[in-house]
Amino acid sequence: MMRFFGLAILAIPIVFFQSPAGAFTCGEQDTMDSVLRAAEMKPLAWGMVDEGVLIDIYTSPAGRFTLAVRDPSSGTLCPMTAGEGWREMTAAEAAEYLGKAAPNGTRLYAAVAEAGVGPSPATVVLTVADGLWKVVLHMRTGMAFPLFAGTVWEFVAPEADDGVKRI
Q: What is the pTM of this model?
């Protein structure tokens, strides 16, 4: 019997976008990894959305990011949004975002999404806490749209040679 590992896919729009690595859409995993690495993007983390579907976050030393959906069964990687300023929020910023002090072990990340999901620019916020994670898109109008959520989240070891852990 198969187990459901993720909470839900809240929305997966199919989009074309200009990433920091250049214009591209879905492609074969190894090819997409090469394109992202050529743009100095390295895997930061991955999360399981549903059994077999993963979200990958690639970042560069300059703070650029690309958020992509990966299907290991087909070997496909589909970039969804990209932008600048990827960083971990301070405790004060996290408390302001959450409306309360962040529980121990909670990590929040934010960046400006310049292309992909929704009108640009918008702020992408990743929250990781107690084995759960979610990605929310915040529009300048004050509206917020949950994009993805799941129950498994792994940060990629910086010294890992090939980057993203394969499932």
A: 0.73
